[in-house]
Amino acid sequence: QVQLVESGGGVVQPGGSLRLSCAASGFTFGDFGMHWVRQAPGKGLEWVAMISFDGSDKYHADSVKGRLTISRDNSKNSLYLQMNSLTTEDTAVYYCARPSFTGGSGWFDPWGQGTLVTVSS
Amino acid sequence: EIVMTQSPATLSVSPGESATLSCRASQSVSSNLAWYQQKPGQAPSLLILGASIRATGIPARFSGSGSGTEFTLTISSLQFEDFAVYYCQQYSNWPALTFGGGTKVEIK
């Protein structure tokens, strides 16, 4: 079955960096565009970034553009989110998400457990 | 980017009653809409896809309707396990697969 396991979260100071990872299994990872979605404490779900199946195309929300960067390694069935110049606004649980359609669109099912990033001094 | 707006923000309902949640898109998304349920401390879980198709294992008391810009999730005869936050998500316009702000269904 499809499984997504996020890791790499933690506490970081404002202006700091962090790299999140997502280990995917149960499906042909290299066939699917992949997404990161985040949820600030007590808030709703926010789309963060998407990467095409082969990594050639990357898209980021305006709120994170230039600071957070999505990437992937298909040989390792892994998705990444490099987070630089972090602010308190980036505090959230980060989920990696596989869409239902290989091109990158669709609903998300299942979800991983997420990894918590806390930006605080 | 398509903006998704959910209403109300909070819905107070007694167990056994029904709940009607609304989701509106800033432009037509056809039937490319999903609903999720999220309980405290858990990741979201898929309820409805294609605006009205229940995901595998979802009870019949959950039903979705609508197309274009107006959508509804109805939960009939609310069970205690249904009290949660519900989100809609459009997948018509990507890569930004946007979510509504959520509706919290709480016990009255």
What does this structure look like?
The complex is a heterodimer of chains A (121) and B (108). Chain A is mainly beta and 121 residues long. Chain A has strands at 3-7, 10-12, 18-25, 34-39, 45-51, 58-60, 68-73, 78-83, 92-99, 108-111, 115-119. Chain A is globular and about 40 Å long. Chain B is built from no helices and ten strands. The termini of chain B are far apart. The chains are: A mainly beta (121), B mainly beta (108). The interface between A and B is medium-sized, with 24 and 22 residues.
Main sheet properties of chain B: 6 strands, mixed
- How many β-strand stretches of chain A? 11
Distance between the termini of chain A: 40 Å
Low-confidence spans of chain B: none
- H/E series of chain B, N to C? EEEEEEEEEE
Q: Which helices and strands appear, and what pairs or packs with what?
A:
The complex is a heterodimer of chains A (121) and B (108).
Chain A: E1 3-7, E2 10-12, E3 18-25, E4 34-39, E5 45-51, E6 58-60, E7 68-73, E8 78-83, E9 92-99, E10 108-111, E11 115-119
Parallel strand pairs in A: 2-11
Antiparallel strand pairs in A: 1-3, 3-8, 4-5, 4-9, 5-6, 7-8, 9-10, 9-11
Chain B: E1 4-7, E2 10-13, E3 19-25, E4 33-38, E5 45-49, E6 53-54, E7 62-67, E8 70-75, E9 85-90, E10 103-107
Parallel strand pairs in B: 2-10
Antiparallel strand pairs in B: 1-3, 3-8, 4-5, 4-9, 5-6, 7-8, 9-10
